[in-house]
Amino acid sequence: MDINVKITVLGAGAIGSLWAVALKQQQHDVQVWTRSSNPDYSVNYQALNDNPQPFLFTANNIEHLSQSDLLLVTVKSFQVEMALAPIINHIPASCIIVIMHNGIGSQEIIKQQLPTHDTLYATTSQAALKSEGLLRHTGNGQTFIGAMQTNTPRDFSSIAELLDQALTPCKWHTDIMQPLWQKLAINCAINPLTAINQCSNGELAQAQYQSQLKQICNEVALVMTAEGYQTTAQALYKQVLMVTHATANNYSSMNRDVFYQRQTEIDYITGYLIRRAKQYDIAVPANQQLWQRIKSMESSYHA
Ligand code: PAF
After folding, report:
1. CA–centroid distance for 298 within its chain
2. Structural domains of the chain ordered from first start
3. Per the residue annotation, which of 6, 76, 183, 295 is the catalytic one?
4. If we measure between CA atoms, which residue out of 118, 139, 227 comes closest to residue 190?
5. Residue 130 designated active-site
6. C-alpha angle with apex 99: 79 to 75, nearest 5 degrees?
7. Which residue's CA lies nearest to atom 7 of ligand 1?
8. Cα separation of 161 and 178, whole Å?
9. Which of 28, 157, 293, 303 is packed most tightly, with the most Cβ within 10 A?
């Protein structure tokens, strides 16, 4: 990879904006692709323990996109197909595509939509919140990246290095489904509970939530084991508690989605777990119940 890489970040949410700023700080040529057609995108960025600083990006520029070396897709799981559709013909064949979202399940869509592109998947535990033009980096965490579908015998680990320079730590993973499952487990535990109870991640450490968290972890561990990933309910529960502690003051993405009455990623988080569990005939009643609660909350919006 060149020193200055031409990058398009598709999706101007908290995580997309965080990576856009971090990559720009490394002197890469970054544009942001947003839902509007505005030619620029600005954000006030507040790094961990720092004061806010303004950042201005080129936005929605077809020429920039058609010359991009890297397309970082940070829209929500259920938006991937719709967000890519209008720009697909402008993505150069040589452009490496990195998909980064909570949950699992967009892989099949991507295979059909971008059959000839090199596509990588990433999962991040970096935490950020964005509201009214202020983007706050609220917690450092590990990012993993790995290949999902490659059409060229290329070494993509330089992409991991590029992301690592922007927001460390980022590591190449030879079986990206493993960290994707690991993150899915954390999201299955934290996201629905914080959304239903409208509480912060840290509040899940309270005694009242422990038996539910353990039950969720038990069920996820059974499905992960059936999928061939070595884990235990205890190990997952410990990791969940670590994340609730590390992101104690954060509101999870699903908490925010429910708060603002937006569609959640439940079908790609708990929904994905339920679909895989069905495949192995594993009962997942705690997760099933959470999925149902979130679905009925979504359907009651604007009621
Ligand atoms: O979705 C989220 O909010 C995050 O993935 C996590 C790890 C639960 C922290 O808030």
Report:
1. 20
2. 6-174 (3.40.50.720), 178-296 (1.10.1040.10)
3. 183
4. 139
5. no
6. 30
7. 125
8. 20
9. 28
Tell me which amino acid residue 44 is: N
DSSP class of 229:
-
Among protein residues, the one whose CA lies closest to atom 6 of ligand 1: 252
Q: CB within 8 A of 101, min separation 6: which ones?
A: 73, 74, 75, 76, 77, 80, 265, 268
The β-bridge partners of 44 are 54, 134
* pTM of model > 0.90: yes
Polymer length in residues for the chain: 303
Exposure b/e, 113-144, CB count within 10 A at least 16 = b = ebeebbbbbbbbbbbbbbeeeebbbbbeeebb
Q: What is the pLDDT of residues 249-303, one digit of tens each?
A: 889 999 999 999 999 999 999 999 999 999 999 999 999 999 999 999 999 997 6
Return the ligand 1 atom nearest residue 187 CA.
8
